[in-house]
Automatic annotation (TrEMBL):
It comes from Bryocella elongata. The lineage of its organism: Bacteria, Pseudomonadati, Acidobacteriota, Terriglobia, Terriglobales. It comes from the Bacteria. Belongs to the OprB family. InterPro entries: Carb-sel_porin_OprB (IPR007049), OprB_sf (IPR038673). One of its GO terms (biological process) is carbohydrate transport. GO terms for molecular function: porin activity. This is Porin.
Length: 465
């Protein structure tokens, strides 16, 4: 299983884009109009979600008394012929069974009725929800003087989607992602990765900085047109959903924890959640183009008012693709980007990546990023790794290992070339619970005063609602 948690609920693929602002217009009114439209869309979406979900929950207890219907057999492989490549991948991943180690799920009496009601909600109202809670405990063998060695973190993710309309060749939909993070047994201001001095975000569940109790990370409108060969997104988006996205090293909840295996760190806004817009063009079955513009001053904790400051990251990616995840997926990507930032100046760069899935379930992947010294905190990166998406024949488990070599942007205060090795194993114990170890070996953290090496031993668990 890859970056998707199959279950009885329909899959919601959160994909983020940026807003394009005309340089010839007044930017403050433009930002205000976009913000007002986004708030109204969210209000309508939220009201509809609350009313319909309340109705579903009211029926959940009655449904719990009814006999459980066994899962339908997995349908034969087929490829969706319309929409974007990521939609095709989502459709394939939605059919991958959980394949748990233990078929008895202690949470089933609570979650099964709710899943059934949410499935009916999706069928009746085209409204989808999914949620997870991820726990991680890490221990660092070496830290700077006075820095504690361990920390625990927890993060709740709520995804939502509403297909407002679909007329065959065109469609409109809304998507959202709400998160809530917390530290366990330590101040919310503490971040072990930051205190170690790493530039690679050794725990991407909170990322860098203090924990955020709640944040609206994604809220955008998607418009499909031209027989769904093109899709336009506008609102609060996540650029990594369009640029440098991998199905094998891109989800910190279930795959690698570090930032370089969760995007391309030479693109400074790749992992941002901010106002912007994006465009996808599916030229052929195998070839597509993605373009994205995002506010470099925005964040998951803020709205979109900083769009008026006209500090944007613009990127375009071309991709050749054959197959689909779990079906010998072969992908090659190349990207160009430039940005204007408030603190790092303006920069540009290029990126390359590939994913090659073999029939055995093994996957080889790589990333390369080259950038100027300004506009980003990392100017060079090479990432090589491999994964097995069905170790020991288990489709619910995953194994991965990767090496990342980076060179910092010295204008941003980087002191050392940082190297990182990470490996993990994720076991699907029940339909709603995953557990597994994670090991990171960090060599010469970028911002540490002295060169040193530390190993972070971690245990990660995820509850799938």
């Amino acid at each position: 299983m890859l970056g998707h948690s199959p279950g009885s609920q329909p899959h919601v693929l959160i994909r983020c884009k940026d807003t394009l602002v005309d340089s010839c217009t007044s930017h403050q009114p433009a930002a205000e109009n976009i913000r007002t439209g986004t708030v109204r869309a969210f209000a309508a979406f939220a009201v509809k979600a609350v009313l319909l979900t309340a109705s579903a929950l009211a029926q959940a207890s009655a449904a719990a008394q009814q006999p459980q219907i066994p899962d339908a057999p997995e349908p034969a492989q087929h490829r969706v012929q319309s929409g974007q490549a990521l939609d095709w991948d989502a459709a394939v991943l939605a059919r991958v069974p959980p394949d748990p180690l233990f078929h008895h799920d202690p949470l089933s009496p609570v979650l099964a009725p709710l899943d059934a009601q949410l499935t009916r909600l999706h069928e009746a109202e085209k409204l989808s929800f999914s949620a997870t809670y991820t726990l991680l405990n890490q221990y660092a063998t070496a830290t700077p003087a006075g820095v504690r060695h361990d920390w625990g973190t927890g993060r709740f993710d709520l995804n939502g989607g509403w297909k407002a309309w679909d007329h065959g060749g065109s469609a409109g939909s809304f998507s959202l992602l709400v998160r809530s993070g917390t530290n366990l047994g330590v101040s919310e201001q503490f971040n072990l990765s930051d205190r170690i001095g790493s530039a690679l975000y050794l725990n991407c569940l909170p990322g860098g900085g203090a924990q955020q109790p709640i944040s609206l990370n994604v809220l955008y409108y998607r418009q499909d047109f031209w027989q769904k060969k093109m899709a336009f997104y506008i609102g609060k988006i996540h650029p990594n959903e369009f640029v440098s996205l991998s199905m094998y090293n891109n989800d910190e909840r279930t795959q690698f924890l570090n930032g370089e295996n969760d995007g391309n760190l030479t693109i400074s806004s790749d992992g941002a959640y901010a106002g912007g817009a994006a465009l996808e063009y599916q030229a052929t079955e195998h070839f597509f183009v993605h373009a994205v513009t995002v506010d470099t001053e925005g964040s998951q904790q803020t709205g979109i008012k900083t769009l008026a400051d006209r500090k944007y990251m613009n990127a375009i990616e071309v991709e050749w693709k054959e197959g689909a995840p779990t079906q010998q997926n072969h992908v090659f990507r190349a990207s160009l980007w430039r940005d204007d930032t408030a603190k790092r100046g303006s920069g540009h760069g290029v990126g390359f990546a590939e994913d090659w899935e073999f029939a055995s379930g093994w996957v080889a992947f790589s990333r390369l990023g080259l950038a100027t010294d300004k506009g980003t905190s990392i100017r060079r990166v090479i990432s090589l790794g491999g994964a097995n998406i069905r170790p020991f024949g288990r489709r619910g488990d995953m194994f991965g290992a990767a090496v990342d070599l980076t060179e910092p942007s010295y204008g941003a205060g980087g002191l050392h070339h940082e190297a990182l090795f990470e490996t993990f194993y994720r076991a699907r114990l029940t339909k709603s619970f995953e557990l597994g170890p994670d090991l990171e070996v960090d060599v010469h953290p970028t911002y540490a005063r002295k060169e040193y090496t530390t190993a972070l031993i971690g245990a990660r668990a995820r509850i799938i609602f």
